[in-house]
Amino acid sequence: DSGVTQTPKHLITATGQRVTLRCSPRSGDLSVYWYQQSLDQGLQFLIQYYNGEERAKGNILERFSAQQFPDLHSELNLSSLELGDSALYFCASSRQGDREKLFFGSGTQLSVL
Amino acid sequence: GESVGLHLPTLSVQEGDNSIINCAYSNSASDYFIWYKQESGKGPQFIIDIRSNMDKRQGQRVTVLLNKTVKHLSLQIAATQPGDSAVYFCAENPWGGGADGLTFGKGTHLIIQP
Q: Could you give the CA distance from residue A112 to residue A20 in angstroms, rounded to a whole number?
């Protein structure tokens, strides 16, 4: 168990809908990262937050957004969903003094039908 | 394009044999590399990491080798066990200097034959 908690484990929704994925980082970790994993693209970095502020952006679509709250949990919001958004979404966290070593949650499997 | 890639998408080895998983990277500024193991239905799990000022690092049954000259990384697993069956990813920090975030390769599926 990595200590990173993601909910829900599975999400099934329809095109055009909006969903929210939730992540609680390991205790004491200030950085939260979101990654998307699909069969053809592998693990793609989406966005990173550090202590409530956006720190870095990767291949995140404009339809997607995220935030990190004062209690350090994070949410990834996916809107106007398309079939191609179906993927595993992982959250990871890291420590201040070892910030490159990411610890991943078990992921949320999103299926857009 | 993808800056971190794997030579073999699938590797099949006999239980008890040693496994070598290879990875090429293209960003010479990368100063940190890490290997993850992902079992079915789980998130990536840290195995071992190495900084660019080293060329070898050993853990429990695993060794990572870094060849900066040819931008190549490998993961050696000694005496593979059924529990080693998983997808293995290499990742790099492409920004160097301690910046955050990792870029992952597409992964190699390691299959352990009984």
A: 13
A79/A67 Cα distance (integer angstroms): 14
Q: Flag if B100 and A106 touch (Cβ within 8 Å).
A: no
Cα gap A51→A60, rounded to integer Å = 20
- pLDDT at B26 exceeding the cut of 90: no
pLDDT at A43: 87
- B41 in contact with A at a CB cutoff of 8 Å? yes
**3-state helix/strand/coil string of B33-92:** EEEEEECCCCCCEEEEEEECCCCEEECCCEEEEEECCCCEEEEEECCCCHHHCEEEEEEE
Q: pLDDT-based confidence at B99, cuts 50/70/90?
A: very low
Contact B45 A48 (CB under 8 A): no
Interface test mutation site (partner B, options A9, A34, A43, A54, max chain B beta carbons within 10 A) = A43
The minimum CA-CA distance between B106 and chain A, rounded to whole Å, is 5
What whole-number distance in Å separates Cα of residue B11 and Cα of residue B67?
21
Q: Is residue A83 helix, strand or coil?
A: helix
CA angle at residue B85 from A102 to A21, to 5 degrees? 40
Interface of B with A in 85-114 (CB under 8 A): 89, 91, 93, 98-107
Confidence band for B95, pLDDT divided at 50, 70 and 90:
low
Cβ contact (<8 Å) for A42 and B93? no
